[in-house]
Amino acid sequence: MTRFALGLVVTGLLLNLLLVVLLLGDTLLPLKLSLSAAAALAAAGGLALTVGLALVEPRQPHRGV
After folding, report:
1. H or E segment and range at residue 63
2. What angle do helix axes 35-56 and 2-25 make, rounded to 10 degrees?
3. Contact assessment for residue 55 and residue 15, using Cβ atoms and an 8 Å cutoff
4. Which of 35, 50, 52, 58 could form a disulfide with 9 if both were Cys (CB 3.0 to 4.6 A apart)?
5. CA dihedral sign of residues 15, 37, 27, 46
6. What would the mean pLDDT of 12-36 be, rounded to a whole number?
7. Whole-angstrom Cα distance, residue 9 to residue 32?
8. Domain membership flag for residue 13
9. Which residue range(s) make up the domain with 16?
10. Whether 7 contacts 13, CB under 8 Å
11. For the chain, how many structural domains are there in total?
12. Euclidean distance between the first and final Cα of the chain, in Å?
């Protein structure tokens, strides 16, 4: 379970890194990244990071004070 969660975190980070590289490379290359592709990469990276971090650090029940 931990490997899967950390795999999701790494996947999310790589997707976000790919998005940044594509957006920064857009100024140097004539290759255009569509808005829907950028939004899909951002959403997939954010979702993978969120789910992976939630699996790594599960919620603990609150104890009354």
Report:
1. none
2. 150
3. no
4. 52
5. negative
6. 78
7. 27
8. yes
9. 2-56
10. no
11. 1
12. 32
